[in-house]
Design goal:
Length: 137
């Protein structure tokens, strides 16, 4: 699954650093991670294969939020998702600190424009199929 490799990649990218103030994995707290700018929440889901395939990709949803009081500009959100696409596209065998290696990431599309009432943000998501394996040591 290598959450660590993805989170590190996004947090260490200088282009994203100028556009987002936080990158969080599986944020389940009811309060948003930032009140001062755009942020990314990474959501991981298990594949829907029931016994037929022993190893398949996991779905990663990259949620880019912008607090309404900061900006409601969906073009800026699209630019962030464009950057994520560029970072993910060339990935092959990216080793994470959590003992997993990402073999490949495939872009699976984007959502419509949304409003999150709980966070009081506008947001869009990008979906990615992430193929991974345990790293060999």
């Amino acid at each position: 699954m290598s959450r660590a490799a993805i989170e590190t990649l996004l947090k260490n990218d200088s282009t994203l650093a100028g556009k987002v103030v936080a990158v969080e994995n599986q944020w389940d707290i009811k309060e948003r991670p930032s009140h001062t700018g755009r942020f990314i929440i990474l959501r991981w889901e298990e594949p829907n294969s029931f016994g037929a395939v022993k190893r398949s990709s996991r779905l990663l949803t990259v949620c880019v939020h912008s607090p309404k009081e900061f900006s409601t500009d969906f073009e800026a959100i699209d630019q962030i998702l464009d950057r994520v696409d560029k970072l993910f596209d060339p990935i092959e065998h990216l080793v994470g600190s959590d003992g997993y290696t990402i073999t490949e990431i495939q872009n699976s599309g984007r959502s419509s424009d949304f409003y999150d009432e709980a966070f009081n943000t506008v947001y869009r998501t990008g979906a990615y199929a992430v193929l991974y394996r345990r790293s060999t040591g």
